[in-house]
Protein: Magnesium transporter MgtE
Amino acid sequence: MKETVDQRELESRILKLLADEDLKELGHTVQDVAPEDIVLTLERLTENQRAIVFRLLHKDEALEVFEALDPSVQSDLVHGLRDTEVAELFEGLDPDDRVWLLDELPATLAPKLLLGLSDREKRLTAVVLGYPQDSVGRRMTPEYVTTRMDYTVADTMVRLRDRIDDAETIYLLPVLDDARHVAGVVSLRDLIAANPDDVIANIMSEAQSVRASDDAEHAARKLTEAGFVAIPVVDSERRLVGLLTFDDAMRIIENEESEDSARQGGVEPLRRPYFATPIMQLVRSRVVWLLVLAVGATLTVQVLDVFEGTLAEVTVLALFVPLLIGTGGNTGNQAATTVTRALALGDVRARDLARVLGREARVGLMLGLLLGTLGLVLAGFVYSWQIGAVIGLTLVAICTVAATIGGIMPLIARWVKVDPAVFSNPFISTFVDASGLIIYFLIARAILGL
Structure:
């Protein structure tokens, strides 16, 4: 049995052997390493290095490693392998994994690979490819084993053994009626525990299912929250068309959360491991957002210009500008992140805007009162109680406004059918910076009589 190794030592050794062009020793090295360690190493190598190492793997291990790679890395690897090697790997993939790869490949290459498939694999892949990009039908497996309500447990076990090599999962079997409608589900555990003569209708459970046209993330979260190993995917007439498995659901959720996390941080998602991402793609993922934020920051400059006279009269006010806009931006980002997460989990819907607004306004007010009291005391002791009052009231107002805006922006985004993460942290920070300064200087003018 292959053992896992220290990842840094393995990577250093592989890089040294590649530099020395010692392919014989490199072959011995990679053949003694567990597939999961090979996957991690391949994702950190260059495209050419990756192709060399991959070719030295045994055929069976190569397919296992290839299936575990990120689809974007698979796409890069395809360009570095010979046509025959690519055709063998492509044929060996499950249909849903094959579609993941096709979505990453250039449009000119995908038809060529599809033509090389066997008739059976071509037919199964076509079923998955027929659904929209973000639908669960695009991520389901069409390879499954079913049973019927009037079958016995013994009949079902025979059917399962006959088709076990063609199914992606055998732990959950949809139960069909004569029209291929999903009448229920039965688990492998239930089959093993039951009497061979028991009828499936007597031991099956009620089926929860998702439509093939449903959003993939929504379906994936439904599966994981319910704790299923798989969930039937049906068409508009509730006829079975596939299964969404737990591993594919986790993959969907991971991709969606990575995308949300990236956009909340002001970058476009990479959709590939960091070291497998070209430098220019890293630049492109960041530069657009930086330009947008730079333009937005001009609002802050304009506000400072308008209140330049106020700053000139009481220069101490300038000392608190970073504190106030930083606190406002952080408060808004916290609210936006919380609500965006709740949207993804289905805890909050777009129609809950009024309720979210009320909750976040109260949360912001309470945070503002806590921070404002602290600001009042500290600024009052160090400078004057008038300055302390300005800082305290400004913190109360900024926190309330920032939390309210941060909470409702993701809901507005969902309502206008835009990714909530896009509307979150970068834009909220820019908006709160400008509005926070206006609040600050208006309060200062009122209290200090400027």
The chain has three domains: 7-133, 147-254, 278-448. Strands lie at 147-148, 172-176, 182-187, 210-211, 230-234, 240-245.
